[in-house]
Design brief:
about 450 residues; mainly alpha; globular; 20 helices; about 0% strand
Length: about 450
């Protein structure tokens, strides 16, 4: 009986947070933990993970998110994001006919490098502009670009979700490099195939040209569509380019150190610092180097858009991951009894569980932290957990995620809009196809590797 009461509490507080959006999701998660505690669920009071316990405060994940975000925010203030956006814009404008493929490539690579999908915000105006200039409906390149930015989190070497998964699976014989060897090719190929599938579908229905969209013509006649043209106010400085170079060197340092301490490579048998701690330290070092060499005023970092959105994401993970792990730990025996046989005998069903959970938890890291340890505990093989990992990117199901809402707001042509039946929006089908393909490819690849 208490299982269903506690589950209702979790769903109610997630719904409350989702209705308000943004950082409110994290607030509601913390309030939900309080409610669970008052209703008898054991709530962790330690920030350290006891052996076998999954309901501790998720401050390790939060620390990684914060360190990565401050490094990216420093790069943004130095002008690095402008330099990256300018480069991406040149690529898109030189190849407008391939916008539906290049847009997701750009957002995928940015997320892969940065460890956060919020970098997609900077590309959405560019994608919309290029689409309008070339008579392309912005909804398709925008939708697959947003989906790619979310799925790429599961392939980023410095994302909190990947780092937590690797720390969990390393105990089961699958290390950090093997995770990346599976997640990077499978998710990238899946996103590109999805772009091709959706473009072919649009062509079959004759829905690729913007000029044939009645709502666009009405908006244009009413003066609601902004004129197109390359942004002239963007200034690319050497400090900005230098900050990008520093960030990339830091990313390479993370991967090099992780490779060196890997059991499979064995260059450093007794590492002086763990990988998680190394990521945090290297990211903070990147921030230091950018501040010292690129003329960045530290105070401006706190007011940057990347810092604000990133810290909001950290609070969301804190509240929601704590709520999810508290519920799971309180009812782990019941979950093992009812779900253990199904998931262990049909491991692909774990992807469905992760998909549904991610659509409610709004965080790849929170979903990974809440469910992967339990899945392993009830008998799911480490290879199956890795193969199902991309499903934690199902943040597009409900049309309330920030990057999704931003894409709808930025597209003034009316081609990207949310239907009145909640799920009928342009992000749902591409996201579903991309995750299904990612999981399918990952199961095939892990079957060959392990």
């Amino acid at each position: 009986m208490m299982f269903w009461v506690h589950l209702l509490v979790v769903l109610v507080f997630i719904f409350i947070g989702a209705r308000k959006g943004g950082i409110a999701i994290g607030f509601a998660g913390g309030a939900g933990v309080l409610a669970l505690g008052l209703l008898g669920a054991p709530v962790a009071v330690s920030t350290h993970k006891p052996e076998g316990d999954v309901s501790y405060l998720p401050l390790d994940v939060i620390a990684i998110i914060m360190a990565v975000i401050v490094a990216i925010a420093a790069m943004q203030v130095a002008g690095g994001m402008d330099a990256l956006v300018d480069l991406a814009e040149r690529i898109l404008r030189k190849n407008p006919k391939h916008l539906s493929f290049l847009a997701p490539v750009v957002t995928y690579v940015l997320t892969l490098m940065a460890g956060t999908g919020h970098t997609a915000f900077s590309m959405m105006p560019v994608i919309t502009e290029v689409a309008k200039e070339n008579d392309i409906r912005p909804s398709r390149p925008l939708s697959i670009a947003v989906v790619s930015s979310q799925i790429a989190i599961t392939a980023s070497p410095i994302s909190a979700a990947v780092v937590f998964l690797s720390s969990t699976l390393e105990k089961k014989g699958i290390d950090y490099l093997q995770i990346l060897a599976v997640s990077i090719p499978t998710t990238f190929v899946a996103c590109m195939l999805t772009a091709g599938i959706m473009l072919a579908w649009d062509k079959m229905r004759h829905q690729t040209q913007l000029s044939t969209l009645p709502e666009y013509q009405q908006r244009k006649a009413a003066g609601l569509v902004a004129p197109t043209g390359r942004e002239e106010g963007r200034v690319i400085t050497w400090a900005g380019k230098r900050s990008v170079a520093i960030f990339l060197l830091g990313l390479l340092a993370v991967m090099a150190y992780s490779t060196a301490i890997s059991d499979k490579v064995g260059l450093i048998t007794n590492p002086p610092i763990t990988r998680d701690a190394a990521i945090i330290a290297i990211m903070l070092t990147i921030g230091t180097a950018i501040v010292l060499t690129c003329g960045v005023e530290p105070g401006k970092i706190l007011s940057s858009s990347v810092f604000k959105s990133g810290m909001s994401a950290a609070i969301c993970v804190l509240g929601v991951a704590w709520l999810g792990t508290t519920f799971v730990k309180a009812h782990e025996p019941a979950i093992k009894e009812y779900a253990g046989n199904i998931i262990s005998n049909q491991p692909w069903t774990l992807a469905i569980v992760l998909f549904v959970a991610a659509s409610l938890l709004y965080s790849q890291a929170a979903t990974t932290k809440a469910l992967i340890p339990t899945a392993l505990a009830i008998g799911v093989s480490p290879a199956a957990a890795l193969a199902s990992f991309a499903a934690v990117s199902a943040l597009f199901v409900l049309p309330t995620y920030p990057t999704l809402l931003a894409a709808v707001e930025i597209d003034d042509t009316g081609s990207t809009k949310i239907g009145k039946y909640i799920f009928n929006h342009p992000f749902f089908i591409p996201g579903l196809v991309a995750i299904a393909l990612s999981v399918a490819f990952a199961f095939l690849l892990t079957a060959l590797m392990f």
